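Subject: sequence -> structure tokens, single chain

Hey, anyone have a minute? Need the predicted structure for the following. Not urgent.
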Amino acid sequence: MEYIARFHKNKHSFIVSHETCLVISALMRLLYSSSSLFSKFSTSPYSFISSLPLIFSSHFSPFVSLPSPVSMAPAFEPAPHEGQTATPHHTETGNNGGSDGQGGYKSRVTVVGSGNWGSVAAKLIASNTVRLNSFHDEVRMWVFEETLPCGEKLTDVINRTNENVKYLSGIKLGKNVIADPDLENAVKDANMLVFVTPHQFMEGICKNLVGKVRGDAEAISLIKGMEVKMEGPCMISNLIFEQLGINCSVLMGANIANEIAVEKFSEATVGYRDNREIAEQWVQLFSTPYFMVTPVQDVEGVELCGTLKNVVAIAAGFVDGLDMGNNTKAAIMRIGLREMRAFSKLLFSSVRDSTFFESCGVADVITTCLGGRNRKVAEAFAKNGGKRSFDELEAEMLQGQKLQGVSTAREVYEVLSHRGWLELFPLFATVHEICISRLPPSAIVEYRAKRPQLSLSEDSARHY
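Reply:
Had a minute. Here:
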């Protein structure tokens, strides 16, 4: 009998046969042939099978490579993304065409940023660099130096305790994580740079790094935000490319950092431009049994999802603060996702609709509107009737962490205003006007009565 795939559950295995695949294929085609959302399952039962461990166990290993004797029919090969040739997710090749690390080339990784999410990213990466021969064990993490109440420097405490006591207390990062307060020193040898800082600091960081990074370096941004310039919006990945001259992918998803830190299962999406091999190396670097990463050839779409969902989360927080209920919150989430898609496609025609069904899209909207700092602080803002500023609440509630939603709402509003799109995006516009106290929090559900009811279909506007 020809076997298609093998999965591991705890210490046991189960095998899916060729015949089972045929049955599943027929069922999928029958059930989902008319649904665009599930079309990939009907055309690729192999992709559906790879999700079966979710049914059998909440603790499972990601898909493992097929046994070498297997010869699969084309219909059961993993479906590549549009225009791409499928490659294995887990390879043992180093970055920039290096060898497998057996005495050959090894990639060096630096994480630029050390907040809550930055520390979790360092933990994920460090667990893989010690395991994979293609990476140097050591992971440098640039830390913006602070003096703790005890009088010690934050970097000294991290290196002594292996723990970021301020932003990720109680979690060991890995003994191979080295905190470094010197930005230039932290990046000088790295050929894989992971940027994860508040987006409002990135322009200054990039200026300080001009001429200081390796010419063959690859970057990835975990930053959710954008810069607004006179000529228009600039995504962080593009800012990195323009100022440092290096390719930049992005990683976004339904990722509440504290949950990933304690190894609760979650997913993320890597957005890449042209080089699938580079995308697979990022997948390899971040993937763990509890953190599943999927590559998508859509940098702008993935990055805008991660950026705009924080604006929707602010709106969800207003709803929670006013105790409007779950129906209202669900409506805000749906309208927000629709405006995210429309805004993204107006800015970048290359953005794919399918991206919004990845972890970076609908999943991130859901988790951010249910939890996370943006929703939390917006709830407090609404409960106080908008009488306490977001700056005041941020300082009180986040212990040094930064909100992204309020500044992103302002930046989005600037783009909408400049391009004459305010009436096309009533939710986005209303969120900003509430944040600056031009409107009361209750306006979050009143905006439709005050603005022309417009909708966006593909790249053009039309009346309902």
